[in-house]
Amino acid sequence: MNTYNLEILSLNRELPLIKIKDDLAIASFVILGDSELVKTVAPEIAKKLKDIDVIVTAEAKGIPLAYEISNILGMKEFVVARKSIKSYMDSPITEEVNSITTQKTQFLCLDKVDAEKVRGKKVAIIDDVISTGESLKTVESLIQKVGGIVTTKAAILAEGDAANRDDIIFIKRLPLFRVDKENNFIEI
User: Fold this and answer.
1) How far is 8 from 13, CA to CA, in rounded Å?
2) Per-residue 3-state assignment (H helix, E strand, C coil) for 139-161
């Protein structure tokens, strides 16, 4: 298996290279279950968050990071935009999303209770990786739809061209990989 060695702060991770198209691959970065990584990167992101009232993340990979950052900042809670409407949700508000890592259209939603936590508040959107920005844009649209004010967008990694954006906070760039006809992975 081809891998990419990610050096981030004091840590190293071997990320498997996964083809997502015939000619494109990503280094699969999954923070779920990696407590050491989350504990290492969360303080670095937290110190860059200024003047926010609430943290919002999309289900599911951003959850441990949002949890750790909210603890560091002394917040009692954070909000998760869910990927499906649950039976216990009251008056869910939804937005469609097509991200680089999903095979089909998905939805992100907030219920009435979470919408109230965001309404009129300065929001930091937290994620593990920002790539095409589609998921980020969808969360931002959802927050605006319920009356929240997005002031900060942050992630551990910015993938590919996302690293050139000036409207996001991130720790490190993660490359994309071109896959040639011989199935070689070339960093781009």
Assistant:
1) 8
2) HHHHHHHCCCEEEEEEEEEEEHH
Q: Specify whether the CB–CB gap between 70 and 46 falls below 8 A.
A: no
The number of angstroms, rounded, from the C-alpha of 118 to the middle of its chain's C-alpha atoms is: 18
Phi-psi region of 74 (alpha: psi -120 to 50; beta: other; left: phi over 0): left
Strands 93-97 vs 106-110: parallel, antiparallel or unpaired: antiparallel
Structure tokens at 102: 């999903």
Tell me how far apart the alpha carbons of residues 153 and 140 are, in angstroms, rounded to a whole number. 9
* Model pTM score: 0.91
Q: Identify any residues that bridge with 161 across adjacent strands, giving them in sequence order.
A: none
Confidence band, pLDDT 50/70/90 cuts, at residue 98: low
